Amino acid sequence: MSTPVLEVRNLVTELPIRAGVLRREVGRVQAVSDVSFDLMPNETLGVVGESGCGKTTLGRSLLRLIEPTSGSVRLGDVEITTADRKSMIGIRSRLQMVFQDPYASLNPRIPVRDIIAEPMRIHGVSKDEAAERVADLLRRVGLLPEHGNRYPHEFSGGQRQRIGIARSLALRPRIIILDEPVSALDVSIQAQVLNLLAEIQDEFQLSYVFIAHDLSVVRHTSDRVAVMYLGKIVEIGIRDEIYDTPAHPYTHSLLSAVPVADPRRERSRQRIILQGDVPSPANPPAGCRFHTRCPIAQDRCRTDAPELRTVVSGQQVACHFPLEPGQTLVDISSR
Prior knowledge:
Elements: E1 6-19, E2 24-39, E3 44-48, H1 55-62, E4 70-75, E5 78-79, H2 85-91, E6 95-98, H3 112-122, H4 127-140, H5 157-168, E7 175-179, H6 187-204, E8 207-211, H7 215-221, E9 224-229, E10 232-238, H8 239-244, H9 249-255, H10 263-268, H11 299-303, E11 309-312, E12 315-317, H12 329-333
Parallel strand pairs: 3-8, 3-9, 6-7, 7-8
Antiparallel strand pairs: 1-2, 1-4, 4-5, 9-10, 10-12, 11-12
Helix pairs in contact: 3-4, 3-5, 4-5, 5-6
């Protein structure tokens, strides 16, 4: 077995709730709650879930762009959560991020060459070497070296995202966290960026944490998939097992919303419409957090919080009554 490049254990991130003119803290919301997973070399781990489930907060917590409240994030033999400011500079040379919005993640006041070269300058790369590497990175992401003289507003959304990818590669990291990297792009441009990410992964031997809400994109790009609900991972496993035989009721309902290309299959399959709204993360329900919307919840679900446990090799689920292979949520809930 390979050694994980990133080990996350019991990660918790709480965010303050502020109110009033003075923005005083009136409470806290647990955006990430007891999350654990390993990221293997050259692997893509997809993280999916509804808006507000904590995916982006998780990604930012791994880099300490948002400070975790507790838990452990280990990059090799380095503990990220307790590293001092000077150590974090070195850590971020190995762990980088591509942000969701290609319009907001680039400084509009400086040319592209300086945007890509800035991480190198911080880490002491000489000016000549940085210029050479910037030109090379621009070529690798499908742009021309002379594009480095332009400003971000002169590029399309897809080109800006390519610039963001080039910047993330500037320090030759081992891991890149991709936060909805194609959600702001047209479908045709999405395919180009996804293909570029796959090529770069092979070339640089990278590991990805791929955060997205588009389940079709995640299936295309990921080796394993983690499903989040209300701050927790409710199911994690090999991609095909998650998509073909989901064990958690929430995963099953989420996948039922994915469009199918075959019109006959699309017309014949049953959508699973969950009742009720997602509970407030500031006041999550006791027991299983999904029980308020789960069509097969029982008394135990309302009091006991389930832990992630292995149901089949390579697939873990946090559910007291997981679905068996071949079972559907529609069949069980109609009994």
